[in-house]
Design goal:
Order of helices and strands: HHH
Strand content: under 5%
Largest sheet: none
Distance between the termini: 41 Å
Mean pLDDT: 90
Shape: elongated
Radius of gyration: 15 Å
Number of strands: 0
């Protein structure tokens, strides 16, 4: 888990769990990526259901 998180977020789980600023940064990035993915899915749905 630590390696996967470090590869995807550039921060290890230990550092993530012990550093509030890094945790907030990671969570904001996750939220941004989630919202972007939802936008893409909605766009694809619109194109498929024309």
């Amino acid at each position: 888990m630590e390696k996967a998180m470090h590869q995807s977020r550039g921060v290890g789980y230990t550092e993530y769990s012990q550093n509030l600023e890094k945790r907030i940064k990671v969570e904001k990035e996750r939220e941004r990526e989630y919202k972007e993915s939802r936008r893409v899915v909605a766009e694809v749905d619109r194109q498929v259901h024309r």
